[in-house]
Amino acid sequence: AADYSIAAQVWIQAKAVLLTIVWSGVVSVIAYKIVDLMVGLRVSEEAEREGLDISSHGESAYNR
To answer: I need a labelling partner for 29 at 20 to 30 A (CA). Which of 5, 18, 38, 51 fits?
Structure first.
């Protein structure tokens, strides 16, 4: 084990962590874009004004 270097091992692990972060970011952006194209990321302005409890679920969050 004369050619073993802890610094080399730490560098390999650091590169793996950075690759994982980049990979996660790229996959997240792709998933975000797919969802945006398929169903959209926002409700209509009218539904937002009415309240999402009523427009999305058909129920009221608070008794009036």
So the answer is: 51
For tokens 């009415």, name the residue: 50
pLDDT in tens, 29-54: 999 999 999 999 988 899 888 888 88
Rama region for 17: left / alpha / beta (φ>0; ψ in -120 to 50; rest): alpha
What one-letter code names the amino acid at 49?
R
At 26, the amino acid letter reads: V
Return the ∠ at Cα 49 (arms to 29 and 42), rounded to 5°: 10
Query: From CA 39, how far away is CA 33, in angstroms rounded?
Result: 10
